[in-house]
Amino acid sequence: MNLPNLLSIFRLALVPVFAVLYFSEHGRHAVWVFVFASATDVLDGFLARRMGQITQLGRVLDPLADKLMTGCVLICMGMTGKAPLWVVVLFCLKEALMGVGAIVQFKRIEDVPSSKFYGKASAILFFLVLVALMLFDIPSPWPNVMLGSALVLMLISFALYARRYLETRRV
Length: 171
Prior knowledge:
- By secondary structure, the protein is mostly helical.
- The protein has six helices and no strands.
- The protein has one domain (3-170): Up-down Bundle (Four Helix Bundle (Hemerythrin (Met), subunit A)).
- The protein is 81% helix and 0% strand.
- α1 (3-22) runs parallel beside α3 (56-79) and α4 runs parallel beside α6.
- The protein is globular.
- The termini are far apart.
């Protein structure tokens, strides 16, 4: 078990910590768990590349931790009315489809396809929007506009991944 993979496992462990803190009397501090988890995501990717420790396990754990944390944040925000249900449903549906595609791809080629810049851009925008919505009391309709913008980029990213997936299926 290398350090980047341990950081991904640590991020997985932070998912329930975020949820418990979000619904506690100190809920406003949950955003810092999300920020810290995201910082460890950047760190584990940097370390894995820098130290030559990219593993198949890490290529599964890293995106799993990211998706579970972001999904948890969105679900918590949806439960408290800070994110509309349609955003939560679309995000979860997209991630479920991406997960199924990754499993099928793994069974086919015994590897997990690496992320692309459009997937990273989508994740960064989602992160920024969620942090802003947790930190600031943004008046309506701007939260929906911000979430909608993040969703548009997420859906474009999904379409590009789907196209890439379909192209590899033809080979």
